[in-house]
Amino acid sequence: MDYLDDAEFRSFCVVVPMFNEEAGAELCVKRICEVLSSIPFRCALVAVDDGSQDSTAAILDRQSQGLSNLAVIHHATNRGYGAALGTGVTYAIEAGFNYVLFMDSDLTNDPDDIPRFVIKMKGGYDVIKATRYRDGGGVKGVPFFRVTISRVGNWIARRLFGLPISDCTNGFRAVRSSLLDRMTLTEPKFPIIMEELYYSAFLTRRFAEVPVTLTNRREDQRPTSFVYRPRVFFNYLKYPLKKFLGVRPHGLLEGEPVR
User: Fold this and answer.
1) What DSSP state is assigned to residue 112?
2) Which end of the chain has fewer surrounding CB within 10 Å, N or C?
3) In what order do the strands lie in the sheet with 173-176?
């Protein structure tokens, strides 16, 4: 794999939140760490156990004994997807990683796509989103109604955000740490993905996409905790609507973008 030459790129950290993922935690960590070990840059996996009530915590602790590129952080109670990401981001910034790459723990995001994100990091992009809807991306095994809702929601969000992003709701993404450090993110659950993109829209113009194929969770894993309710849709779409109306994010001062 060839990488572009960007002197600003030195390292990245993969952040994976986990909650009651005993059926897939070990394989997830193994697959990601195997890919990271082949990348010629400083990189690590941070698994955030978000107050799991099964054996997820014990599995992660056991794996951390034999994997030098794995760090495990535990929440005493379940605080939500957004809080788990925040814990991972804090670790990445304090450890001096240049980028944070977010992935799900159920391997619906393929770890083999990580090097493709690295190429974009080396290219100097600030926000790199996986996309199911452009240039060879797709879905496999995902129920039709979920795909339909996603396509419609992303069609609306893309036009309101006005960004060169075709898959706004995709949680498989990489963001420059310096941008994340300027964001005051408050969403405790999945809409943090949109809140993050909302801040990014005011902070940078350097966006890129990586086409990927999203798969469905395996039958032996717990069902997804995402629910399809009107309130959830509002919590997602309020951020592109704010951007469309020119409402600046909380705590973000007027001024030029980072890049």
Assistant:
1) G
2) N
3) 70-75, 42-50, 11-18, 99-102, 173-176, 127-131, 207-211
How far is Cα 102 from Cα 110, in angstroms, rounded to an integer?
Answer: 12
Residues 6+ apart with CB under 8 A from 195: 183, 185, 186, 187, 239
State the pTM of this model: 0.89
- CATH numbers and ranges of domains, the chain: 11-245 (3.90.550.10)
Of 13-17, 83-87, 142-146, the least confident: 142-146
To the nearest 10°, report the CA torsion of 157, 18, 228, 233: -30
Where do we find the tokens 């894993």? 221
Could you tell me the end-to-end alpha-carbon distance of the chain, in angstroms, rounded to an integer?
Answer: 27
d(CA 32, CA 30): 6
For the purposes of burial, counting CB atoms within 10 Å of the CB of 144, is it exposed (0-12), middle (13-18) or buried (19 or more)? Answer: exposed
Q: What is the SS3 assignment for 228? A: coil
**What's the confidence (pLDDT) of residue 2?**
44
